[in-house]
Structures are given as C-alpha cells and as structure tokens.
Specification:
The chain has about 625 residues and is an alpha/beta fold. Helix content is about 60%, strand content about 10%. The protein is built from 27 helices and ten strands. α11 (about 270-285) packs antiparallel against α23 and α12 (about 290-305) runs antiparallel to α19 (about 440-475). The model has no long low-confidence stretch (mean pLDDT about 85). It binds guanosine-5'-triphosphate and magnesium ion. InterPro entries: Fe2_transport_prot_B_C, FeoB_GTPase, G_FEOB_dom, Gate_dom, GTP-bd, P-loop_NTPase.
Amino acid sequence: MNAAPLVALVGNPNAGKSALFNALTGARQKVGNYPGVTVERHSGRLVLDDGRPVELVDLPGAYSLDPGSLDEQVTRNVVMGSQAGERRPDALVVVVDAANLDNHLRFTLQLIALGLPVVVALNMVDLAERDGLTLDADMLARELGVTVIPTVAVRRRGLDTLKAEIDRLVTESRSQPVAAADRIDDIVTLQRRARQIAASATVAETPTRRWTHMLDSVALHPIAGPILLIGLLFIMFQAVFAWSEAPIGWIEQGFVWLEAQVGATLPEGWFRSLITDGLIAGVGAVIVFLPQILILFLFILVLEATGYMVRAAFLMDRLMAQVGLSGRAFIPLLSSFACAVPGIMATRTIDDEKDRLTTILIAPLMTCSARLPVYTIIIGAFIPDRQVLPFVGLQGLVLLGLYLMGIVGAFVAALLLRRTVTKGASSGFMMEMPKYQWPHIRDVLLGLWSRALIFLKRAGTTIALTTVILWALLSFPKPPEGSGISPVDYSIAGRIASGIEVVVRPIGFNRDIALALVPAMAAREVAVAAIGTVYAIDDTEHEGGQKAMTDKLKRNWSLPTALAFLMWFVFAPQCISTIAVTRRETNGWKWPAFMVGYLFVTAYVMAGITYWLAIFAGL
Ligand SMILES: Nc1nc2c(ncn2[C@@H]2O[C@H](COP(=O)(O)OP(=O)(O)OP(=O)(O)O)[C@@H](O)[C@H]2O)c(=O)[nH]1
Ligand SMILES: [Mg+2]
C-alpha cells in the first residue's frame, strides 16, 4: 500500500481552514467571511519539500465532536475514521482563530484527545495583533502538548513551518502507534480548561479586549448566558407594566377630556356616537399602549446598540440548529418581534430555500408588538398585580410566559415542518461578535421616534378605518324604541358575531370575542379597539377610559375565557398584511394558505385546551 498520507484540516467554522487549504494546495476552495462556507469534504494534493505527496482534506467547520448538523457529522465521521469509503486521517491540522482562542480551543482539546498526531495552526494572528492581543505560541504548545504554528493563511505566513511539521507528523505516524489521551466529555470542564489555556497563552491584551472577554465569559457561558438572557427579558417585560402606568394615565385623561369636549359641542345623534363611541373609544383604546410599545423598543434598541443582541443570537444558534433552523434565521425572527412583515422580508438573507420557507412559516409566532395591547389589557384585567418573589411581579411573569410560548411554539413548529413539508439539510451560522459599547442616545431616540410614528400611523389609518366600519356595523340597524334589546345584539355585527360564536363557543369564547376576531385580521390591536367600541356602544353608565374597560371585561368574561383568548392570540394568524407578504415572498397562495391553516388549527386547539384545563382546575 503506497497511498499518500491523509491529513485533514479541522476546526471551528470560520477559522480559515479553506484559506489554509487553498494556500497549501493551490486549490481554489470557496472561502467566505462567515461560518458554514464549506459544507462537504474537499481534497487536494500537498507536495512536501522532498517531493512526496500528501492528500489534504478540507472539512466543514464544526463546534464539537457531538454531531449537530449534517455537515458537522461529515467532520466527525472523517476524524473518527467512521466515514464510509474513507480512510482515517494519518494526522490532523487543527485550525484555530487566534482572536477567538478559548472558544476554538474547546474543540481543539476534543480533537487532541482522539490521539491522532496533531499540529495546531494558530491562524489569523494578524487580526489578533490588530485587536491588541499578543499570544505566546510556545506557551500554548506546552499547555496543549502539541506543536503550535502561528499562521496568516491569506498572506501565506507560517506556511513553510506548517508544511515541515506536517512532514514530520506523517513520517512519524507511520512508525509510531498513537496513544489516546484522556477524553474530557463534560462541556463545562472542557470550557474551563479551554479558558485556562487561553489565559495562560495570552501575553498582553488591550483593556477593551479584556472587558469584552470578561463580559462574554458571562454572556456566552453555556449556563450563565441563558440565565442572563431570560433575566434581561424578564426585566424588560416587568418594565413594560411598571414604567407605563403614569404615561398611560396621562394619555387616558387626554382622551376623556377630548370625549367631554366632543360631547359638549356636538348634538346628540349618530355623528357624535361615531366620534365618541367609534373613533375615540376605539382608536383611544389602542393609542394608550404607545408607552408600553416604546418601553419594549427602548430595551430592544439598547440591547442591540450595546452589542448584546449578537451574543443572544449566538446563544440561540445551537438551539436553532437543533430544531433545523439556520442561524441566519435569528435576525428575521428577531425583527418579527416588532412585526412579522419586515421579519418575513428579512428572510431573503437565507440562501437555502427550505430554510427560508421554514423561517417564513414560523415568523408569525414571534410575538409582534401589535399583540402587546391585547396581552396587557387582558393581563391587567385578570391577572392580579401581585409580587410572587421580591421584584418579580405576576403580571410581568405572565407576559414573559406568553412571549416564551410563542418562541417555543415556533421551535416546535420548525421541528415538525423540517421533518415533513420543508425537509432538508440545515446549515449552521455564527456571527462575528461586535465590540461592546455604550448606546448612543441619539440613535436610540431616533429608533424610538420611528417606532412611535409607525404605531401612530397605523392607529390613524388601518385601525381608525376598521373601527369606523365596525362602529357602523355595530350601530345599525337600531333596535326598535323600548324593545329592551341591546343595540349590539340587534346590529349587523352582532348578528354576524352570533354566527361566529357558534364556532368559537366550544373554546370558551363569548360574543364580544367573536366580534373582535374578524376586524382584528386588519391589525391585531383592533381586537382591543373593537372591544372598546362594543362596550362604548353598550355603555349605559358612560364611564370611559381603560379602567372602565377593565371593569367591564371582569364583569363579562370568566378567567378561563380570558386565558383562552390570550392563548388564541399567541398562535392565530391574525393579520392580513402578514398573509399578503407571505404570498409575495413565496410566489403563490400555497404557503400562505398552509400557514393560515396550521396556525388557526393550533390556535383553536391551544385555546380550547387552555379553556377546559382552566375550567377543570376550577378557576
Ligand atoms: N486576516 C486574515 N483573514 C483570514 C485568515 N485566514 C482566513 N481568513 C479569512 O477568514 C474568512 C474565513 O476563512 P475560510 O477559509 O472560509 O474559513 P473556514 O474555516 O474554511 O470556514 P468554514 O468553511 O465555514 O468552516 C475568509 O474571509 C478568509 O479570507 C488570516 O490568517 N488572516
Ligand atoms: Mg471552509
């Protein structure tokens, strides 16, 4: 047997393996500044100084030896020697990114433990130097127990030394059996060991880098990271309630004043009813949520500006890969928290058609800001404002729960879709971590201003129009004088709602909800506007304001009904614009129809389950 020795290039994604492969073999493998460029094995020929050939394979990047995605499995199988029709490599060149040492060393340690002859290419040292990081390669070599060679693949620096070391490894490996070193299986120990080694190999680091590193060691920690993320989200939802109370009060007083002014100037009649019961009650019921929406976006904008959002994306990356989503789906899904429409448009950055389709289909499950008014008014009316733990209020907790429910729902949906209608391989993706920095107040304010304008524009157009139409349908025809029938029951809308009610009664919905469901298709906030208008028209006491609405909700709805209604809003495809943009982005009616179908069924079932569970729990 005279086959050339086989040497594999392995390492984390985006470490520069393909760049090194090209430099060593003269091949033209695709390199790109994002992970997941190489997705299958490629081999090429490296000629050693004495003319002997070596077969070099460039592998897809992987984070560890546990098989995650399909391309990671290729890497694992090759280095373990279990790939069908493939010899086990005689040696490994482990490529690490010098500027990202502790993350990359984790995988390196696992690879060294396999017992194959290893040389570490400490790549991208130019970028590390630029960032003010000086590393001691000899120290690193001593800690790892293998040779370490600093390289700059793109400038061919260190390649001759690397070649000489490959020569030495393949010559030796033919004569010497290798001893398998101790394997470290526990990820936390592995991480700790990697960090220790990285720290001892670091000679100098600029303060910014050190800061970034310290913050990242918490923010990206496999256990502390997710806890921090959940904690931040929780504070955000708590603040949505806690900080908005006063400004909501002011806006409400404004509307009460406005209603009084209109009441005093306009004569009694249908026009006055249109203005007060229709526009002011309906649009006003929505506009009072402006403070809450701004608080939500204040948090999102600040987290984005500080550089934390990308870390959150990184934390989610593994999880997303496990449900078959591309890491690149993170940004579209994140924008869907504002609104699914820009979120679905942002999926254009996902190359793989199946990946993209899956992301589009689950985007409506991310809680868009239009759901916030619906959630908070119901929570405000039905969930007691109680502390469950110091600083942890029940209302904020329920709101966080609803958001999480949407996310979990989306992940479950992705998992199922990926096994059935959008079957296919998925690709991993990791982003470069930006530097942490203080947010610029100006940028944050500009962001808030544009959100406020979008919201008010919706309130002034779509929401106002739907409310007026709804008011008309609710106000006519008028019941005969003295018949004692409620005007809402007698109206066209009331009759339509009675029809819908038949369908939604089994999941605990009443007539008010049935009435709100259809106009809420125009914009979800309209559900609140619709209920506001219904109660304004049916209102005998003329109280007005959110307090009055809350009181009426409490009087007319049971707790199980309210919970079922919340659950419905988590899942239901409640908005026409989302359906329209899905049609445009998927070129046809097939996928939007599928999306609407599966979401409605899920919403109906989940709301039903919630209702009946609540009934049986005796709530
Ligand atoms: N400055 C600098 N850039 C490098 C170096 N090595 C690679 N790059 C760049 O880093 C990026 C990633 O390189 P690739 O070779 O595609 O990385 P890879 O490890 O093959 O990545 P996957 O195939 O995704 O696993 C590319 O933009 C390269 O041009 C280096 O030593 N210095
Ligand atoms: Mg590559």
